[in-house]
Design a protein that fits this description.
single chain, globular, 5 helices, Rhodanese-like_dom_sf, 17% strand, 118 residues, alpha/beta, Rhodanese-like_dom, 4-stranded parallel β-sheet, Rhodanese-like domain-containing protein, GlpE_sulfurtransferase
């Protein structure tokens, strides 16, 4: 039983270290970009977006995006894509890259608000 507990704790530690590494990587990427060269894209639902979002973001829910709704997206800018947990933004980034967009998966809305404002 102790070996299983140690394994679970180790996996959780690795998960949190990975999340921290990813957040630092996004912060470094965003720091190199000029705000006029990026477009913020929130791929959460409209209800989630209306509750809290990064100022200046465009909201296209991921299901609408992958169905082909790219209205308002600017291919000349790097899209900074986010959602609630990073899962939907990850899917959106894969699809957007296939469409020829430059993208950064910023993960969560909180991460974007923190890094864009600082």
């Amino acid at each position: 039983m102790n070996e299983q507990l140690i394994l679970v704790i180790g996996l959780l530690a690795l998960f949190f270290l990975y999340k921290r590494f990813k957040a630092n990587k996004v912060k470094a990427q965003l720091a190199t970009l000029d705000s006029k060269d990026i477009q913020l894209l929130d791929v959460r639902s409209e209800a989630e977006f209306s509750g809290f979002n990064a100022p200046g973001s465009l909201n296209i829910p991921v299901h609408s995006l992958v169905a082909g709704n790219t209205k308002g997206l600017d291919k000349s800018k790097t899209l900074v894509v986010y959602c609630a947990s990073g899962m939907r933004s990850g899917s959106a980034c894969v699809w957007l890259k296939k469409q020829g967009y430059k993208v950064i998966n910023a993960g969560t809305v909180a991460s974007v608000v923190q890094h864009i404002n600082h």
